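Practice problem: predict the structure.
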Amino acid sequence: MKIYVFGNEFLEEDNLAIKLAKSLPYDFVFCDDPYEILDLKEVVIMDVVQGLKKVEIIDDISRLDSNKMYSLHDFDLSYILQLQKSLGKLGKVKIIGVPQDGTVESLLEELRHVIESLKQQTI
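Answer:
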């Protein structure tokens, strides 16, 4: 299972997903552009999500918009996912949401558990 990681390593409020991914031995693909995932039929995304208190799996992308759970960086990703959905071209998507206010140390084990549970499922 590949996990597509989004974020901006130069912005402290948006680089936690990248830092976590670099600390774990899973098959991560670091993405700079949401267009990199357009043609995928199934995708697991990991990104910082504002407003979360713990690592959470988001499988309803409408939550990203309706709850205003995105940073400016995530807005591009959210917009692309919403557009793909409205065009009927969105495959199965799971987002591993990482709390913006967490730390690598405090979230590493929780994230590992979430990824392992996802590996047991089919998305």
